[in-house]
Design brief:
The strands form 2 sheets. This protein has a 7-stranded mixed β-sheet, with helices on both faces. It has a 3-stranded antiparallel β-sheet with strand order 1-3-2. The radius of gyration is 25 Å and the shape is globular. The two termini are 37 Å apart. Helices cover 47% and strands 20% of the residues. It has 9 helices and 10 strands. β5 and β6 form a beta hairpin. The relative contact order is 0.07.
């Protein structure tokens, strides 16, 4: 009788687990779409489908750049244009080019649009109440907590990581935000001129890489990887926006940078950090980094870390 190798058995078990997880996600999607009424053309009893209703919510009181609206919802530009034309024909929105750049269009709610948005809010509250009403107090708390966790995890899954030039406007925005935050947190403040900052060329291929995290098209974090030819690979300028913390993005950055360093044949990954960044220090310890002796003269560093990889 043929024996099943341990590796094959583990692979089969892992595959079965993934299949079960996919099945659960699909059941969850079917339950939610049915229960919240997105299968109907008249969402929440109004005379329009959910796509148009969602646009009314996202446009908001101040209006919205059409390009940002597309990025926020992850929709095709042609589909968004069709939805906006329908809303415009019903007198709910106006779409106008900006005076300084006519290629950029801004959509705003009309008075009728604001009134319909308010009606949608009321009916949405009623729908939420109807989901909770049949449940007892304990069940309600469990459902709301589970929804919060699902929302957090789905948001984390929505974050994208892209390799970009460190001089890209989104990269510069993240770095400025990072410097402003550590200037407030460090006991001594922070002066970029005193720090061992890598120049842009050190974070461009082939000498390095720069990753940018985006959520709904907006930059929310960055991390650089130095790949010097005569020294270990090194992580520099890893930052996550406060509003995106708790999504596991710091650990995701570390995993991605480690994988990229390994693909370049590196066996050691290094980083340094300041004593004020206690959450980061905890993350590095939990991810497998070990504290080592100082390997540079960074004036703002109190801890130096190293991890064997590859």
């Amino acid at each position: 009788m043929d024996r099943v190798q341990p590796e094959a058995r583990l692979d089969a078990e892992a595959s079965a687990e993934v299949d079960a997880q996919i099945g659960q996600v699909r059941r969850f999607n079917r339950t939610v779409t049915e229960r919240v009424g997105v299968l109907h053309d008249h969402y929440l009893g109004q005379d329009r489908p959910i796509g148009e209703a969602r646009l009314l919510w996202e446009i908001g009181e101040q209006g919205q750049d059409v390009r940002r609206l597309r990025e926020r919802l992850g929709l095709d530009s042609g589909y968004v244009s069709r939805l906006l034309r329908s809303l415009e024909a019903d007198g709910l929105v106006t779409v106008e080019p900006q005076p300084r750049d006519r290629r950029v269009r801004t959509v705003r709610l009309t008075d009728a649009g604001r009134a319909e948005r308010a009606a949608l809010d009321t009916r949405s509250d009623e729908l939420a109440a109807s989901l909770l009403e049949p449940l007892n107090t304990t069940q309600r708390a469990r459902l709301v907590a589970a929804m919060a966790e699902v929302d957090r995890l789905l948001t984390a899954a929505t974050v994208t990581l892209d390799t970009i030039d460190p001089d890209h406007p989104d990269a510069r925005y993240c770095l400025r935000s990072y410097y402003a935050e550590i200037r407030e947190r460090f006991d001594t403040g922070f002066d970029p001129a005193r720090s061992l900052l890598p120049d842009a060329g050190e974070l461009r291929p082939p000498h390095g890489q720069f990753l940018l995290a985006r959520l709904h098209g907006e930059p929310i974090g960055c991390a650089g990887l130095k790949l010097p030819p005569d020294a270990p690979s090194e992580i520099k300028r890893m930052w996550v926006a406060p509003r995106a913390r708790g999504l596991g993005l710091g650990r995701r950055f570390l995993a991605e940078l480690e994988a990229r360093a390994a693909r370049h044949g590196r066996t050691v990954l290094r980083l340094d950090t300041n004593k004020a960044l206690t959450a980061a220090i905890g993350l590095y310890h939990s991810y497998g980094f070990q504290e080592v002796a100082a390997f540079n003269d960074e004036p703002y560093a109190h801890h130096w870390f190293e991890k064997r990889i590859g």
